[in-house]
Design brief:
Blueprint: H1 27-42, H2 48-70, H3 77-94, H4 97-117, H5 127-144, H6 148-166
């Protein structure tokens, strides 16, 4: 990860440990998403050292997700909702009330944008990124369990499922990137 507090990518993870620099900031949420799932499904069964290692990862990336909340790319749906969901997950995993509040505010900001503007500029129409967005709405629901964010994430999930069903397994057009 970028450990330089003065760097614009402070806290961001690399795709590969051997990378000389941060090449793609999506790496942070793609790495953290399965770790959040691991915490949700097995936190009671993890050994104390495993729990500590998991918390260390989320503590290390917390500054990155907090930075993303300050100036999110709301028009970039899979990245924005993923960064928001990871900030929310960080708050839950770390038991950090401030990070949890920031995560909830970031998720709410994204959901408000989505409700107001729609899905984005086309990348969200790809099968892979539709899946990413759906995974993040489900993660938000699993983290929150109930309440307003849960209900809004469920509504977005339902809309996404309806949209996918409408296209009957075919790629939606136009799609900027169809992967």
């Amino acid at each position: 990860r970028d450990a330089d507090p003065a760097s614009p990518t402070f806290g961001c993870l690399k795709w590969y440990v051997d990378d000389a620099a941060i090449c793609d900031t999506n790496a942070s949420f793609f790495v953290c998403a399965p770790l959040a799932g691991l915490w949700l499904a097995h936190r009671e069964r993890l050994l104390e050292g495993e729990q500590a290692a998991l918390r260390e990862v989320f503590a290390a990336v917390l500054p990155w997700f907090q930075r993303m909340a300050l100036s999110p790319s709301l028009f970039y749906p899979n990245k924005c909702i993923s960064d928001a969901a990871m900030l929310l997950a960080s708050g839950h995993i770390l038991g950090d009330a401030a990070a949890l509040a920031q995560g909830r505010a970031f998720v709410q900001r994204y959901l408000d944008y989505y409700r107001r503007r729609g899905t984005g500029w086309g990348e969200d129409h790809s099968p892979v990124y539709t899946t990413v967005i759906g995974e993040m709405t489900l993660l938000i629901m699993a983290l929150e369990q109930s309440g307003s964010l849960w209900a809004q994430a469920k509504a977005m999930t339902d809309n996404l499922v309806d949209w996918v069903a409408f296209h009957a397994g075919c790629d939606a057009v136009p799609s900027i990137r169809g992967y």
